[in-house]
Amino acid sequence: MSVEAAETLDAEVHLDSESRAHGDHADHKAELRLWLRLLTCTTMIETEIRRRMRERFDITLPRFDLMAQLERTPEGMTLGELSKRMMVSNGNVTGLVDRLVTEGLLQRRQSDTDRRAHYVSLTAAGRRAFAAMADEHEDWVADLFADLAPGELEALMTLLGKAKASVRRSTQNAVET
Amino acid sequence: MSVEAAETLDAEVHLDSESRAHGDHADHKAELRLWLRLLTCTTMIETEIRRRMRERFDITLPRFDLMAQLERTPEGMTLGELSKRMMVSNGNVTGLVDRLVTEGLLQRRQSDTDRRAHYVSLTAAGRRAFAAMADEHEDWVADLFADLAPGELEALMTLLGKAKASVRRSTQNAVET
DNA sequence: CAAAAAAACTTTAAGCTTAAAATATCACCG
DNA sequence: CGGTGATATTTTAAGCTTAAAGTTTTTTTG
Predict the structure, then answer these.
(1) Residues contacting strand D at CB < 7 A?
(2) 3-state secondary structure of B106
């Protein structure tokens, strides 16, 4: 949630760019507004899905996300792999896994070949619970985007793909100024 | 960060839709993939901006966001107004404001006409600090999107605007199933 | 006006999240 | 084999975030 103006700067536009007589650096309000709108969209969707997950299944989004990662990997996955895929810190995964194990939805076992590594997988109860949640989740998302035509969905996918590539390029070059 | 497969489901596609003989509810993998890609993009950008904010200015993103809301409102704003604009809970704003006041970047004062309400505004130091950060922030965002052509930026803005409208419609109707 | 409802804000408890430091184990190299 | 560096994970401290309950003040309404 949040990050700067969100709704405000997103709705209004206030291009007082001409008031900017500063030297070298150009006006990049368009990119800024795009970022804020992107964030607003994501926040709105995330908030709604989180709300429904709690209300309907009494589960948090991070736990659901973690289970989703494990769904198609019956043999399990290491904590490090989970961390990479979920794009969150190692310590975060440790905590989430602990709680899900306590709930009986996950099981962990030490790797036979590497005693540092721990494999995590869904229990039978976990698989059952996830299947039920995933079905509804998919419907919720579909409804959230229901006003977009198929072509618009596709166009958005493509453009977001380009944006993703641009971000990746930007963050991987220029590690420092 | 996170929400489901993110990178995984986003990258792969696995349309095993035909394996879905279940009755009534249609296949909505396209919407699901769109949501995951949207989330991936936002997460990548947010993580990078957060990292730079910490490294360059030793500030958190939520604090920067809050300051951004106050930038163009010298007379200040109530905590409730801040909460609405930032799309976060009231209690969250209370805590952020407390910390920023402690740092000397914000000041609060009780409303003259409503003793429940508190106005918050940037101090001189806060305005100075924000101006410096905002300039660089704008450049960071511009660079993240640098590979998109102007037309693509605009197309993305438009499509995200439609998505936002769709989400708003979906969350405001159908409060319950 | 007095009671009831609403509004603005704070507090609390729980959980999420991260960065950084600490542990433990493994892999490699001489 | 012994040391060095890398890897996998956990722990810690701090901060973010929310929902729900609580406080104070204002507004509405009978």
Answers:
(1) A 1-2, 47, 50-51, 54, 78-81, 83, 89-91, 93-95, 97, 111, 114, 116-119; B 60, 62-63, 87-92, 95-96, 99, 114-116
(2) strand
